[in-house]
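Our collaborator T.R. sent over the components below with a one-line note: 'Predict the complex.' Nothing else. No constraints on interfaces, no templates requested, no preferences about which chain binds where. So this is a plain run: every listed entity goes in together, and whatever single assembly comes back becomes the starting point for the next discussion.
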Amino acid sequence: MRSPITPLVGLVLACSLMFGCGQKKDRAAAKVTITFWHSFVSSTVPALNELLKKFEQEHPNLAVKAQYIPSGDALIQKLITAIQSQTAPDVSWIHADYLQNLVQANAIYQMDEFLHGPNGLAAEELNDFYPALLEAASWRGTLYSMPMEATNLGLLYNRGLFRNAGLDPDRPPQNWEELREYARKLTFDKNGDGKLDQVGFGIPIFPASGPLGNWMAWQWLPFLWQAGGYNINLEQTEVLFNSAAGVQALTLWKEIYHELNLISFTPDYDAAFPGQQLAMMLDGPWNLPRYRGFRHIDWAIAPLPAGPAKRATIVGGEYLAIFKQSQHPQEAWTFVKWILKPETQAEWSMKSGYLPVRHAATKIKAYQDFLQANPGLKVYVDQLDFGQSPRPVDFHGLEITRLMAEAIEKATLGKQDPKTVLDEAAAKANQLLQQAAQAARK
Amino acid sequence: MPFQVTKKSRPLIYQQGRSAILFLSPTLLVFSAFILFPVLFSFYLSFHKWNMFSQERAFVGLENYTRVLQSAEFWSVLKNTAVYTLGTVPLNMAFALLVAYFLHKKVFGKKFLRTAFFTPVIISAVAAAVIWRWIYEPNFGLLNYFLSWFGLPSVNWLNDPTAAMSALIIMGVWKTFGVNMVLFAAGLEAIPQHYYEAAEIDGAGKWSKFWNITLPLLSPTTFFIVVMSIIGSFQVFDIVYVLTSGGPLGTTKVLVFYLYEQAFKFFEMGYASAVAYLLFALIFILTLLQIRFLQRRVHYT
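Returned assembly:
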């Protein structure tokens, strides 16, 4: 039997001998190429390519080589390998979760190096950014990255189903009680076969260890804040998600989950909503371009209902970091700085469905017109003013998010007592924080 | 068969050895770089603390091993792995033998059927798991649709903690039984026909021929399959990763998935390496036990 590998190896060898695959030298020596890694959802890639083309037109001496890596998990693993083998990109798009690891590996620049340089940003410019984003872009109070775009969480709802249930589609639920009541009214099993034909509200429960575990925890945080809680204390000595507010928020999720019998319903809300089987769900602005294609549904976006303590939504984003292995850190900064320009931000938001990272972008006339034409996006942009980002967790952030996600899953799907599971998760999280504090003292 | 080296043949062996090394060198190079080195390096790592990012690797002795053994999660994933093994191996073998037995006879379209049953083995696990996700989908999935024909209630296969493991086992059997089917088929081919002829003259029925001739003479194949299937099911990862990601409530989190998480989600390389070596030790002991207790029951022609 001939091995199928042999021709492959031959091909690779021949290819590398003849062309030096992938090692093409730029002819124009003056032109600097910036490598940029990202893992945008594939639907965003065309918009990104337009953006990069525009940058290259404005900067004839610079070229951007974008490399798409399909998932955030794959991206970080590729970055690790690249750092070890001294082949890191100039700029990469990262999740704030991994900031700690990259900083401790001494892999990325502090932004102060560029912000206060000759090509820097003035302090008033920095003040123009939404503070929640800069907080998430920092590690222990130092900026290590810059936000490329913002997102937050809104309530997506189907106006047609509201009308059918006798609810006013112009008055989405304003608080927790209404959310619960609407959800009940919008849930029914028409033929009594035990299978729900329509569900009022999708509580986003996914396996904590799965790819959507973090997404679940991320959507629970605004409920914690709406009840007046926090994820961690400022001294980083203990987590606070098991406070009374945490128990209140998780109890709400648990009760809605069981009232609507969501265990029998599909967790694939992205398919259930366009299929008119789901009336309300939590969602971010990145799906707006997709919804514009749903001509058959009368949908709208509402701000998240207010909790017992206040209004809140979660603000997130993706961040651009500049790597210390870069041969062209100044050119890389030029690229990042261009991305941060209000005009770029406005254009990027209109094309991609993400939100701008600074107020100035929302003042641009063309963007304001766009918001008038797209009320859904406007709701998200307006929400940025009361959006919070989770307090950064300096050490073991990934594990602590996981513990929180496990507690959420145990209380809803596992029917366990919210307080008990949150206390258990908090005890484990606090142990990790103590270990980190001890290691830091050494 | 140990090779007897006599004084006389040594020069020849020496010559042969040299050219053998020469011929083997490309494979040996690949093997060393992609198998031998990682095996040794992860053994080294299992005594160190390393997060993959930093340049330093602190020596911690046996701490990783003790931490793994004290971790409640480790024991629960071990239990899940055992459940998966106990579920897939017998089902897999019964199914493989059944199909091999019927395809051994003169059946119309025998070749086609054999290929069809073997296909799942070749399909990429990820693509297959994506298809199975749709089959198991609670609202518009194929499986619940079939169940509804018989008036059975629909099951939320992948999100119900009581059903997810069964869903995983069903897919695991579907995915791997083809290999065992081919092995059984080869084993059946190897049984000399004259035993059956002799039995028929003695007036043995179908069942008694199967029980007294086929099964005992298949036992070398069966033994091999038991050992390999258990090793394989202890190492299951890809279908878990795509189908359930260890959920719901961690009911399908198996050992290798746990290892993957520790290594590539939390960057605990030393800890994950210790898990890997414990898994190796476990499979090693299990295989030894099987050789000790099952080998005795193997009949050769």
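Summary for T.R.: DSSP finds 20 helices and twelve strands in chain A.
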